[in-house]
Write a structure and sequence with these properties.
Length: 356
């Protein structure tokens, strides 16, 4: 095959704690001849499958890619050696790095930094959403304890404090009482400050929000092409990932098109995507609160949106909604890279007919 006519996709992955999905063989997701696609893989040490080692243009294994700056060095080397046309990652904590790598490699398309930041920085995404009248909880960027105190003076308790670039529920704190607040500020707020001078102050990498206690919470997962929804899989949480970390049971209930909530969730999802700078091909995981507005109407309030497939058991549940077969990782990979899904005898949810 003429290498110049082949699309070269750099996959940056990290395989850490085992989940319900085992590590994948990325070269199973494409056909070199039919798709005219070749894979270049950067992954965790020992994570590449034997088939990927045989089929990929090149495989690089690093101890922990998410905390190894050699990922960028290798990306530059691999581009010079093989030519990288697309950069793909499903890891939330690599999304921004992948955007910077695209810029480094001279890519003018794909998810670049100024767009990607709005799907990672929780303050930036809420600021963009609120500017365009999408419902959000009250929020403020945090530089010091004074910001949190002023916020509680204005909006009361409870509140939630979390990293602006966090993922899952890492670093989140819900503060219910004044005593909780004082304990948090005394013992936890400055725990990342390093006595040896590595970190001397905070630069606004925390956000405080009004905590919407008692609200139902939903997540909408899907694929948008040029900002328009083409596939969507909404769920209601039975307790969230954050509640799971506090010992509660965790679960999700799939919401079919026959459910009255489906259309409203999809409408709010499309409204948000109309606001955000979406790449040409976007897989996303959106979290929303169900809230009664001041006019008494049910509305959905933005928690956050991520430019990635859902993690953990959610991907498995989507696969079941598609009919089973374990093909969702492949479908997600192909859609993310602009490749038509293969025909596995499954019929993904139709395009959004209810909104046409």
């Amino acid at each position: 095959m003429n290498v110049q006519n082949t699309l070269h996709i750099l996959v940056i992955d990290e395989v850490g704690t085992s989940t319900v999905y085992k590590p994948v063989t990325y070269t199973d997701f494409v056909d070199v001849e039919a798709d005219k696609v070749s894979i270049i893989l950067i992954t965790s040490k020992g994570a590449a499958s034997e088939l990927d080692k045989q089929r990929c243009l090149e495989v690089v294994e690093l101890e922990r890619p998410t905390t190894d700056g050699m990922v960028e060095i290798w990306a530059e080397r691999l581009d010079k050696k093989h030519r990288i046309d697309l950069v793909y990652t499903k890891q939330e904590d690599i999304i921004l790095r992948a955007a910077h790598i695209r810029k480094m490699l001279g890519h003018s398309t794909g998810f670049l930094r100024d767009n990607a930041i709005l799907f990672r920085d929780k303050f930036a995404m809420k600021e963009m959403a609120s500017t365009h009248d999408f419902p959000v909880p009250e929020f403020k960027r945090v530089y010091s304890p004074a910001d949190i105190i002023m916020f509680t003076n204005s909006y009361g308790l409870p509140i939630i404090v979390k990293p602006t670039l966090g993922s899952a529920s890492a670093g989140m704190r819900v503060i219910h009482t004044r005593q909780d607040l004082e304990t948090y500020l005394e013992k936890e707020f400055y725990e990342r400050i390093d006595d040896r001078g590595k970190v001397m102050d905070y630069s606004g990498d925390l956000i405080v929000e009004k905590f919407l206690a008692g609200c139902r919470m939903y997540h909408v997962n899907g694929y948008a092409k040029q900002g328009k929804l083409e596939q969507v899989w909404p769920f209601e949480y039975i307790n969230t990932n954050f509640e799971f970390t506090m010992g509660k049971a965790y679960g999700n209930v799939f919401i079919p098109q026959t459910d009255p909530r489906w259309k409203k969730l999809v409408e709010f999802t499309q409204k948000l995507l109309n606001i955000l700078p979406c790449p040409q091909h976007l897989m996303f995981h959106l979290e929303l609160f169900e809230h009664v507005s001041q006019t008494g109407e049910i509305e959905f309030v933005l928690c956050e949106i991520a430019a990635r497939r859902p993690g953990g058991s959610i991907a498995l549940l989507i696969d079941l909604a598609l009919g089973g077969g374990g093909f969702f990782p492949e479908i997600e990979f192909r859609l993310s890279n602009g490749l038509e899904p293969r025909d596995h005898g499954l019929k993904p949810i139709d395009p959004i007919q209810a909104l046409v």
